[in-house]
Amino acid sequence: MDPKKLFIDDRMKGICAYCGGTPNSRDHVPSKVLLDEPYPKNLPVVESCTSCNQGFSAAEEYIACLIECVMHGTTIPNEKFRPKIFATLNARPSIASRIENGKQADRHGNLFWQPEEGSVKEVVLKLARGHIAYELGIQRIDEPEFIDISPLPSMTKEQLEIFFSLSSSHLYPEIGSRAFVSVLSGKVSAFENWLVVQNGRYQYAIGQSDGDWVKIIINGYLACHVIWD
Predict the structure, then answer these.
(1) Is the dihedral of CA 11, 15, 21, 22 positive or negative?
(2) Nearest to 37 by CA among 84, 87, 69, 77
(3) For residues 32 and 40, what is the distance between their CA atoms, to the nearest angstrom?
(4) What is the four-CA torsion angle of 106, 110, 115, 121, rounded to 10 degrees?
(5) Mean pLDDT throughout 207-229?
(6) Would you state the pLDDT for residue 170?
(7) Cα-Cα-Cα-Cα dihedral of 131, 41, 59, 116, to 10°?
């Protein structure tokens, strides 16, 4: 049996992975702004419409810059910043201003950052929908049943154990999907397994136990968990 011949799922062809419209472009999942150059080979790509592709760009830049600023405790870029984020903050001071507006300090000088929740959620849902479409060949443009976005350093030991553990359905993924072909052929897959796209920058896992779910870690800092029934 040749696993390559089992890749027969064409349901996502001709459909934008994010809105269900007619695609006229392609989008990387994860977005390149979340990665460093040189980029990994064979980055996942999904079909998308121009509106979705371009519409997410500003929010993706914001979240990439936000995480970097929070990790370094400042909105003033320096040599410790990722080169891409350093350049973005210098070229677009409005992003630094937006992040700075959410910065607060308590009486002990400890910093607290209040992100633009709408922008962060928008990016996380976009990434989750892209992974589901690419790996499982299904579309989830509906609102998820559950979404949690938390900084890893703020999570308790129990919360970390729950997040990093991946539930298993003991079943094959969607028949004909990329995940199905990978599992059947013994290839490394994101199905119920952490798949590292770029060390320290991005990893994710997907599954179908108790609904369709995606877990993502961005920049080794932000833990994201999305579940659809």
Answers:
(1) negative
(2) 84
(3) 10
(4) -120
(5) 95
(6) 67
(7) 70
Count of H-run helices and E-run strands, the chain: 7, 9
Q: Please tell me the distance from the alpha carbon of residue 100 to that of residue 66, in angstroms, as a whole number.
A: 9
Strand 45-48, strand 25-28: pairing: antiparallel
State the pTM of this model.
0.91
Give the pLDDT mean for 117-122.
Answer: 96
User: Who's near 189: CB < 8 A, 6+ residues apart?
Assistant: 135, 179, 182, 183, 195
Helix axis angle for 57-72 and 83-91, nearest 10°, is 110
For residues 164 and 127, give the distance between their C-alpha atoms in angstroms, rounded to a whole number.
18
What's the CA angle centered on 118, arms 113 and 122, to 5 degrees? 115
- The per-residue pLDDT for 10 is 56
Range 193-208 average pLDDT: 96
- Candidate from 55-69, 167-181, 202-216 with smallest mean pLDDT: 167-181
Q: Cα(218)–Cα(82) distance, rounded to whole angstroms? A: 14
pLDDT score for 12: 53
**Which tokens sit at 184?**
């059947």
Q: Is 14 left (phi over 0), alpha (psi -120 to 50) or beta?
A: left
